[in-house]
Amino acid sequence: METITIHPKNKDQANLFEQLAKTLKVPFEKAKKSKSPYDPEFVKKIKRSDEDFKKGRYTKIEPSQIWKLD
C-alpha cells in the first residue's frame, strides 16, 4: 500500500478529492491542522506577560530614560 499526499489549492479542490476517495471507497484521513506554529512555552510566556500587564504588574520607562544609568 502507498500513501499519497495531495495539496489542494482551495476548499473546492479539497472537497473534490474527498468525494473522489469516497466514490472509489478508498480510505482516507484529513491531516489535523496545527494549532499554532509557535513553541507552546513561548505562547505561555506571552500570555503570562499579557496577564501581568492587565493586572498592573509592569514598569514604565520613558524612551528618553532608556540609556541613562542610575
Write up what this structure looks like.
- The structure is a single chain.
- The protein is mainly alpha-helical and 70 residues long.
- The protein has a domain at 32-70.
- 40% of the residues lie in helices and 0% in strands.
- It is built from two helices and no strands.
- It has helices at 11-23, 40-54.
- The protein is rod-shaped and about 75 Å long.
- 0% of the residues are buried.
Arithmetic mean of pLDDT: 90
Please give the number of β-strands: 0
Distance between the termini: 70 Å
What form results from the Cα inertia axes?
rod-shaped
Q: What percentage of the residues does DSSP assign to strands (E)?
A: under 5%
Brief account:
With 70 residues, the protein is mostly helical.
Sequence-ordered SSE layout with sheet pairings:
Layout: H1 11-23, H2 40-54
Descriptors:
mainly alpha
